[in-house]
Amino acid sequence: MRSKIVAGNWKMNKNLADTETLLAELSAKLPDTNAEVMVSPTYVNLVGATRALENSTIEVIAQNMHFAESGAFTGEISADMLLGIGVNTAIIGHSERRAYFGETDAILAKKVATALSKNIRTMFCFGEELEDRQSGNHFKVVESQLKNALFSLNASAWSSIVLAYEPVWAIGTGETASPEQAQEMHAFIRKTIAEQYNTDVADGVSILYGGSVKPGNAAEIFSKPDVDGGLIGGASLVADDFVAIIKAI
Ligand code: 13P
Questions:
Q1: Element at 125 (helix H, strand E)
Q2: pTM (2 decimals)?
Q3: Which of 45, 183, 232, 242 fits as disulfide partner to 41, beta carbons 3.0 to 4.6 Å?
Q4: Angle at Cα 171 formed by Cα 66 and Cα 131, nearest 5°?
Q5: Is 166 a catalytic residue?
């Protein structure tokens, strides 16, 4: 059975003191849940976050990692560096990395391959832009993002993959995909994976929705059969909102 997951992507927000404060509040308010709960502070606060969550079920995950093992890549962070501080999951392919840092499908394929070779669970993000949806190309775009970055993996690698469908037009805009639009795309993603691999792989992968998930819309989005949770930006920075979203699953 695939896991339910609620993950907070904190992006470039919160210094160490604010990180510790938010995590203390989250830990105190964390509801009983069968879902995996994850938070993703910025790199410099990962160590502090893992310490703050030592006795917690909340997992600390990274927002990114480099594809090289080590070397002359100023400003970058390797898989081994993450493993060395007890971080075993990384977000790869966020649309902000694609848009502002030039991360192409080819680069992302290398990152995914490195992460998996190091036993780092990969939360792979992808999703269409507004003009893709308006022109009716959203399924085609999503299919090609999946193919280019993930479809050369062996079927067995998929047990370490989580997908996060994040339509770019819904990120930080307050506009969400409707629950029906999310379900339609998630079902399409699962069908595409089943065609490339098999139904075991397709049914086993958790597919999260991301893009303006809030306490007020989470339950309806999460109620859809192919939506296995959420990757939450803005609302994950406020303990009560994130807790409400966890409760919604
Ligand atoms: P918002 O929830 O702020 O729209 O961000 C979504 C996102 O990008 C999560 O990775």
A1: strand 121-126
A2: 0.97
A3: 45
A4: 100
A5: yes
CA distance 90 to 82: 9
Torsion of CA 97, 103, 105, 110, to 10 degrees: -100
With beta carbons less than 8 A apart as the criterion, state whether 105 and 148 touch: yes
The number of the ligand 1 atom at minimal distance from the alpha carbon of 174 is 4
Atom of ligand 1 nearest to the CA of 212: 4
β-pair partners for 95: none
pLDDT in tens, 108-157: 999 999 999 999 999 999 999 999 999 999 999 999 999 999 999 999 99
114-139: burial string, b at 16+ Cβ within 10 Å, e else: bbbebebbbbbbbbbbeebbeeeebb
- Name the token pair of 118: 């190091």
Taking the C-alpha atoms of residue 149 and residue 107, their distance in angstroms, rounded to an integer, is 8
Q: What's 212's DSSP letter? A: S
Shortest-distance Cα residue to atom 2 of ligand 1: 233
- For residue 199 the two structure tokens come to 């139904």
> Is the CB of residue 172 below 6 angstroms from any atom belonging to ligand 1?
yes
Residue the block writes with tokens 């939506």: 227
Single out the catalytic residue among 36, 96, 128, 166: 166
Backbone angles phi, psi at 164, to 5 degrees: -125, 105
Tokens of 75: 């400003």
